[in-house]
């Protein structure tokens, strides 16, 4: 790694401090002005607004100009930096990995890596999960993942869950590639938005997986909070009849994060150390629109290369929050002229992963993992689970007599 004669890291830290100070002053100025603004007539308010917008010498204008200068400085620093990759494509990423510089790789993935497994993504017009939910007569597609609606009509979720439950689908080559990274000791962590648990089914150690939006690996009663056997949920999914808690008769929900619920504690606990240590970030099959997951792109260091393998170009990052974190505007992907570290492959995730594997000389190993995937008879597995649950319940009843 080349030295830093200009002290860019120090300058970036200083700009972050300056940005925080400017933002605080801006918030204070706006708060102190609120009472007076409410007393003005609409005409005076309009004049004042125009005056504030036109003036660069006023308090707000000064703060805005300072923020503009900070952003401009950040862009100048990035434009003058030497590239971290030989090329901003899969060849550049392959060369970087082969150089031995990538030893703590983080993979971020979304629904796009599971499409080839037969699981629809959420937002694709015509084929996405939300578009296909019309048959359930929902007030809106997202309602199936809302806790309030689940309480009223749990059957809608349980019917849908049969299409998503782990075991009904086979991991893709992309899932197997994540496992290959782990087998080579290169995977720091896999952060996934998916609830299908296909990373684990592909062989990735659960300790290396952070399911940001939860999954079907566990289940709890939404009333008393008691953990319930996942076999009970499997049996309920097969029958289409919602699972009830044997303690309080409350509804049992798989540990999937519904809208309005907080993300798992493990997500927040691991992100800080993981992304500080990361030396290569690979983002696969995600639109990067859901926060806080999308902001993780900006949590790696300035000297960490990033790769996006996706059907469409996305930016991600956290916008202004990236600046306040000390990462500058580089929190988002940058594929423009000032790019110094972001590689891009536009297309199918599996296609991109096969290309990357060939460039790395890993194609045979990846093919071996794909061919060795176990065949799972999901419905037979669920029926066995249902029998086990029924036998357990019968035994409990006899014991209580």
UniProtKB/TrEMBL annotation:
SUPFAM superfamilies: DHS-like NAD/FAD-binding domain. Pfam families: SIR2 (PF02146). Keywords: Metal-binding, NAD, Transferase, Zinc. GO terms for cellular component: nucleus. The keyword Transferase applies. Its cofactor is Zn(2+). Residues 1-60 are annotated as: Disordered. Residues 35-46 have a biased composition (Polar residues). The active site is at 213 (proton acceptor). GO terms for molecular function: histone deacetylase activity, NAD-dependent; metal ion binding; NAD+ binding. Zn(2+) binds at residues 221, 224, 243, 248. Residues 15-28 have a biased composition (Basic and acidic residues). Residues 83-363 form the Deacetylase sirtuin-type domain. PANTHER family: NAD-DEPENDENT PROTEIN DEACETYLASE SIRTUIN-2, NAD-DEPENDENT PROTEIN DEACYLASE SIRTUIN-5, MITOCHONDRIAL-RELATED. This is Deacetylase sirtuin-type domain-containing protein. It comes from Symbiochloris irregularis.
């Amino acid at each position: 790694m080349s030295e830093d004669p200009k002290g860019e890291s120090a300058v970036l830290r200083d700009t972050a401090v300056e940005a925080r100070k400017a933002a605080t002053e801006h918030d204070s100025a706006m708060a102190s002005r609120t009472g007076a603004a409410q007393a003005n007539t609409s005409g005076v308010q309009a004049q004042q607004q125009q005056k504030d917008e036109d003036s660069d010498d006023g308090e707000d204008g000064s703060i805005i100009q300072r923020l503009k200068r900070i952003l401009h400085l950040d862009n100048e620093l990035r434009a003058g930096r030497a590239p971290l990759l030989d090329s901003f494509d899969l060849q550049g990423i392959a060369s970087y990995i082969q150089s031995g510089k990538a030893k703590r790789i983080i993979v971020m993935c979304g629904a796009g890596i599971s499409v080839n497994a037969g699981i629809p993504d959420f937002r694709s017009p015509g084929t996405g999960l939300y578009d296909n939910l019309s048959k359930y007569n929902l007030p809106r597609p997202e309602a199936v993942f809302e806790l309030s609606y689940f309480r009223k009509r749990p059957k809608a979720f349980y019917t849908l869950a049969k299409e998503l439950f782990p075991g009904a689908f086979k991991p893709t080559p992309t899932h197997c590639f994540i496992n290959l990274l782990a087998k080579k000791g290169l995977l720091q962590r896999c952060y996934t938005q998916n609830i299908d648990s296909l990373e684990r089914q592909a062989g990735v150690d659960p300790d290396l997986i952070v399911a940001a939006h939860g999954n079907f690996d566990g289940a709890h009663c939404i009333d008393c909070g008691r953990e319930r056997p996942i076999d009970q949920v499997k049996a309920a999914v097969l029958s289409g009849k919602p699972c009830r808690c044997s303690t309080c008769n409350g509804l049992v929900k798989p540990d999937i994060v519904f809208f309005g619920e907080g993300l798992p504690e493990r997500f927040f606990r691991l992100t800080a150390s993981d992304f500080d240590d990361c030396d290569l970030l690979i983002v696969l099959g995600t639109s990067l629109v859901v926060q806080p997951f999308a902001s993780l792109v900006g949590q790696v260091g300035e000297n960490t290369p990033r790769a996006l393998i996706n059907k469409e170009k996305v930016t991600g990052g956290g916008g202004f929050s990236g600046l306040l974190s000390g990462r500058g505007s580089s929190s988002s992907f940058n594929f423009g002229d000032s790019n110094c570290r972001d590689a891009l492959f536009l297309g199918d995730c599996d296609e991109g992963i096969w290309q990357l594997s060939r460039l790395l000389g890993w194609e045979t190993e990846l093919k071996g993992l794909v061919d060795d995937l176990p065949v799972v008879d999901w419905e037979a597995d669920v029926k066995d689970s249902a029998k086990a649950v029924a036998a357990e319940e019968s035994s409990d009843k006899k014991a209580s007599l």
